[in-house]
Amino acid sequence: MKTAIERLARGIAVLGGIVMVTLILLTCVSVLGRGLNSIGHSEWLTGISHSLAEGLIATGVGPVTGDFELVEAGIAFSIFAFLPICQLYAGHATVDVFTSRLSDKVNAWFIAFWDVVLSLVIWMITWRLCAGLLDKMGNGETSFLLQFPVWWAYAASFAAALVASVTALYCSVGRVTYAATGRSILPASGADAA
Predict the structure, then answer these.
(1) Is 149 helix (H, G, I), strand (E, B) or coil?
(2) Which of 31, 43, 112, 150 could form a disulfide with 175 if both were Cys (CB 3.0 to 4.6 A apart)?
(3) Three-state SS for 189?
(4) Would you report the helix, strand and coil content of the chain in percent, each value rounded to 5?
(5) Number of separate helices (H) and strands (E) present in the chain
(6) 143: region left, alpha or beta (phi > 0 left; psi from -120 to 50 alpha)
(7) How far apart are CA 179 and CA 111, in angstroms?
(8) Residue 142: beta bridge partners?
C-alpha cells in the first residue's frame, strides 16, 4: 500500500510540475510578445526605421491570447497536485515552539491529531470542489477569451484533490498508528531521514 500511495503522490506531483513549467514558459512567451509588440509600436523604433517597426508588428507578435485564463486553471491544478507529496512526507510548515519540550509520545499524538484535522479539511475541499465541478458542468460557463468550458479546470483540480484525499487518509491512519504503536507505515520525511 505504501508503495502505491507513494507512486500515486509522486506521479501527480510530477504532472503538476510539468504543468507549472509549461505555465512559466507560457507566461515568459506572453511577456516577451507583449514587450516586442510595445517596441514595434514605440516612437523610438518608428524613428529609427519605420519599415522595421511595421515588419515587427506584421509578424503578429503580442501577448498569448487568454494566457491569464490558462495560468489560472493550471495553477489551481498544480496546487492540488503538489498537496499529496507534501502530505506524505510531512512537508507542511510546522511551528514547534511549545511542543519541542514535550515527550516524543505526546508529540506523536499532536502530529496525529493535526494530521487528521488536515485530512478532514482536504476531504471537505474535495467535496466542495466536486460540487463546484457539477455546478460548472451544469451551467455551461466558459472562459472569457478562449471560451473553453470552466469545468475542465475544475475536473483537473478535482482529480488531483482526490489523490490528495486518498493520500491524506493514508497519512492520517499512518500517523495515528505510529502514535498508538510506535510502528511507522509512512515513508520517512526529510527530517526523519536525516
Answers:
(1) strand
(2) 112
(3) coil
(4) 75, 0, 20
(5) 7, 0
(6) beta
(7) 8
(8) 149
Q: Judging by beta carbons within 10 Å of its beta carbon (0-12, 13-18, 19+), is residue 88 exposed, middle or buried?
A: buried
- In 3D space, the residue among 19, 9, 136 whose CA is nearest the CA of residue 76 turns out to be 19
Select the more confidently predicted residue: 103 or 93: 103
Would you say 136 and 149 are in contact if contact means Cβ atoms under 8 Å apart? yes
- pLDDT higher than threshold 90 for residue 157: yes
What SS3 state is found at 66?
coil
Q: How far is CA 48 from the centre of its chain?
A: 46
CA 103/CA 107 separation, integer angstroms: 6
Q: pTM for the whole thing? A: 0.86
Which ranges constitute the DSSP H helices of 41-103?
Answer: 43-48, 50-58, 67-88
Burial 143-176 (b: 16+ CB within 10 A, else e): beeeeeebbbbbbbbbbbbbbbbbbbbbbbbbbb
Spatial distance between the Cα atoms of 182 and 108, rounded to a whole number of angstroms: 9
pLDDT tens-place string over residues 170-185: 999 999 999 999 998 8
CA distance 85 to 170: 12
- 49 phi, psi to nearest 5 deg: -155, 110
Q: Which amino acid, residue 184? A: S
